[in-house]
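Every protein is a chain of amino acids, and every chain bends into a shape of its own. Below is the pair of lines this work produces for a single protein:
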Amino acid sequence: MSEDRRASGGKRQPSHVRNGQSAGRGRQRSGRNPKVSRHRSDHARGSFAAQKHGKSKSGSGISKAAAESSRQFNVSNRDGRTVYTQKHYQARGSQLTNPEAFRDAGAKSGSKRRGSIVTGYGDPRGPRRKRIVILIALVLAVGAFFGIRALLPFNIYLSGTEYKVSSGTTIDDVAHSGAVQLVPGNFVAVDGVTILEEGKGEEYTAILNGYTVEDNSLKLKRGDSLEIVKGADIMEESEVKEHVDAYPLSITGSGPMQVMVVQGHNGFYRSYKGKTSGITVQNQIIDKKSGFVKKFKCETSEKVVALTFDDGPSDFTPEILDILKQYDAKATFFVFGKSVDSHQSVAKAIVDNGNQIALHGYDGVDLSTLKYKEVSDQILHGQQVIEEVTGVKATVLRAPYLSFTAEEWKAVSKDVTFVIGASYDSEDWRKPGAKKLAKNVLDNVEPGMIIQLRDGGGDRSQTVEALPEILKGLKEKGYRFVTIDELIEMSDVPTTDDL
């Protein structure tokens, strides 16, 4: 192995190294060393040699500082060519202080230049640019072809036969072209049958690709299938009214308590009266659904009784509350909304003492004498006052005079959960005397009973006087006192299974 190979680790040295020549001097003599890849520019090759040997390239105008700055050049490979790009072109103390100087230096080395890129054999971006230009030309050509094609006449199918139209032709253009005979519809009455005026309906009806068209200004497309048929009839204007068809409601069972097991709903229909013909027709919109109410009672052997007081609150109510508290008893008060408004502190005391407050209407009018809307207003108004004063929403109702039919149920079913009657009416309003009143109650009591008393609506002094004896006698019989809500909880409340 020669000495120059051993010195290089077994690799053969370039000729100019074996001859002891610097890269710069060798380049001065020949301009290009055939042993070095022709893809590297002379300028870059000279710069790297100058760095290696610490010498500047004679006659080229590139100093040692320029050689130092050449270390900042990046080398990349594009399409098999070695390219030197100027990433950082400014070097301290270098004569190459701007891109122009760098390009000039590249020119001196015999290389081709494009912008700030110095290449050995032309710009590699040229073929790519050519491909882009060709692609754009193809796209424009295709677009021009289809654009011109869209402007040319084309065929549609008119009633199954080919028919040539120009670009932009609408359905209405074809209808009035004379190619078809137009048959207008008629002007008809609200019944849809009686003809009021012939030929005064729609001029024609267009069917495009199997669908009736509402907008006849639609533009046709190549291959569309169009039919022009008789125009639709135009119906006369009419007056419209809605009518309620009340649903039937059945009340079955027995007992002092009622609950709506199935909520029915009304049907309704519209009537149309023609303004021109005077003809009236009806249209059923919603079918009605029947409702069911079930009466029941508390079936229990446990000795419980629910004392109830109606028509209050009044000036007698505070005394009754004191007596109940004295005997550790509680009751349910069916109150008028109007009376609650005038006795607010008493109404609050009813609730504060652990009693139940329930609804007796707003002002005591017989609900069965009112219309549907008036019944609903009585209930809603009474509930509103009670809730505002006591904070309790009363959904348990006892109708005044216990008069409550299926029609009243329909009016209040969305706002009332239970309607309560009485197992035994003490008839204290007859004023039979305190002792007689107490005896009547004690003689007729049974487990699970609802006993009706009154704390308003007149002079209730006999009721107040009889109450201690009633409470004492019931306790001696082993009874305890519950509210209506508690009695309902103890009961087997009917469901749809009981119908």
Notes: Residues 1-97, 105-121 have pLDDT under 50 and may be disordered.
